[in-house]
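The instructor's notes for this session suggest beginning with a concrete chain rather than abstract definitions. Hand out the sequence below and ask the class to guess, before any prediction is shown, which regions might be ordered.
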Amino acid sequence: MKPISKQWRNCSRACALLVLVTLVACQPTKIVNSDLNKVTSISPKIPTKIPDIRTISGLVMLAEAKIASGDAETAVSIYLRAAKQSQNPKVAERAAFLARQAGTDNQIQEALSRWLEIDPGSHGPHEAAIIYAAEHNQPELLQSSLTKLVTSELDYRAHWLANFWLGLPKEKQQSFLEIITLVSADSINGSLAMVVADIKNRLQPPSGTEWLDTWIGSRSQPASVVLFRSRLELPQRKRAIAYLERFAKGSQDFNIRAQLARWHGLEGDNETALTILRRLIQDDSSRHQDLLTLSILELRSGNLDAAEKHLKTLLASEQYRSDAYYYLGELASKKELNDLAIDRFLLVDKGELIVRARKQLASLALKSNDLNQADRWFSEAKILFPNFEVQLNIAEAQFKTANNKAGDAIPLLTEALLRDPESIEILYTRALAFEQIDNIVGAEKDLRTVLELRPDDPDALNALGYTLADRTDRFDEALVLIKAALQQKPESAAILDSMGWVLLKLGQLENAVSYFTKAWGISRDHEIAAHYGELLWRLGRHKDAREIWRIGYELNPESDKIRRTIQRLTNS
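After discussion, reveal the predicted structure:
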C-alpha cells in the first residue's frame, strides 16, 4: 500500500469506493429524501439507489454523487458532516482529500483535525498534516506532526520527505529544511537524519555530510545510517571503504559486512572480499545475494570447486536459479567442458542474463567455427523471450561486428532503431558497425544523432573525434571534440589515447607523448600499444617502440592492430 504521502497529491477514487463498500455493508439505506431527486449524474461505480442522508453511508453516497455531477464544494461539506458522525478513519481520510482539492483552509483544517482525532496512531493523518503545514506556512503543526511520527515509531521511514521538499516552492524549502533539521536533532530516527543530510548536500555540499557526522557522533550508529554515510564518499570508493571499516569491526550487521565485501571486490582486493563473505555465509547461509557474490568472486579467483558448490546450492532458490546456471556455464567454459556450458547457458531464462547467456553461447559457437549456430541461438532466444528482442538484436549485432561481420549487424540495428529511434546504445553500436565497413558518413551521422540527444556525452564526443582523426583529414575538428570529451573524463585511457592520436596526426609529436604515456599507465590496451609505439617510432625511439609493441602483443596476442602497425612502419 502506498503511504499517504504518495496518495495525498492526487486524490483517488479508490479511497471513495473503499469508504462506500465499508459503509454500505454496515448500514442499510432507504429512499426517504425527495431532495435527492435533483441528483442527475451519478458515477457508475457508485450505487444508484438514492440514499438516506440520516445515515453516514447515505451522506457518503450523496457526496460522491455531488462529485460525479461536478459539485465538489457541496461534496466537501457533506463529507465533513459524515466525518463528524463517523468513527471510520476512511471517511475522515476521504474528507481531508476532498477538502484539500476543493475546500477552504478552514475546511482542510477541520478535516485534518477530525482525522487525527479518530486515527491518531496511523501515519496517514500525520503525513497529511505535514504536507498541509509545509504548504500553508504552519511551522508549529509541521514540527508537532513530524515529531509524533518519528517518536511513535522509531523505524519510521521518512525518505518521502526528500522528494516532497523538491516539489515545494523555493521560498518554502528553507523553512521546511530548518524544521525537519530541528526535529531530527532531537530524534534517533536514522531515516529522517538521512533526509536532512541529503537535502543539505544538494544545497551546499558537503554541509549535509558534516551535519550527519555530528548526528552520528552523538548517538549509537544505526547500520542504515552508517551505510548511507559511507556512500557519501563515492565515487571515491577507497574512502568509502575506510569509513565503513571504522564500524565494521564492532558491528555484526550483515549489510555492512556485505557492502564492505562488494567494495573490496570492486577495488580488486578479492582476498579481503572473500574472507568477509565466507565468514558472513558461515553466520547466515540464507543470504542468497551474498552467496551469489561469493560464488562469483570464487570463480574469478580460480577457486572453481568452491564456486561450483555455492552455485549448486543456489539452484534451489527460484530467485537466483538463473544466476546460478549462468555462472555454472561460465565455470564449465573455463574447464573447457563446452557441451556442459551450452546446456547450462540454455537454462538461463530470467532478466538481462538471458542476453548475456546468448552472447556466451555465440562465443562457444565461434570456438567451433559454427557461426550459423550462433545465429540460430539468437533467433531461438527472440522467440522464447520476445520482451528481450531489442536487447538480443543489439547483442547479436555486437557479436557480428566484433567478428568482422558488421554488414550483417547493421540490418539488425536498423530494425531495433525502428522500435527505439532515440536509443543511445543502438545508435552508438551501429556507428561502430558503419565505421568497420568504411561507411564513415553513416558512422558520423549516427554519432551526431547521439550528440543531439546528449550534447555533452564524453564517449560519443570521443568516438566521433577519433573517427574523424583516424579515418579523415578533419583533424582540427577532431581535436575540438576530443578536448571536450577529455574535460569531462580526464582519466579515461581511451580518450587520452584519442588525444595523443589526433596530435600525432597534426604533427605535434612531442605534445602527444604525455597523453600516450598516461593512457598506457592506465590501460595496456592493444590499440593504445599500437598508437604509442607508432609515436615513439616516429620520434626515432625505435627500441622503446618495439618494447611497447612487445608488451601489447603479449597481452593481446590476437591483435591485428599491433601487427598491421608494425608492418606499415617497418615493412616487415
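Then share the key points. Residues 1-52 have pLDDT under 50 and may be disordered. The first helix runs from residue 4 to 7.
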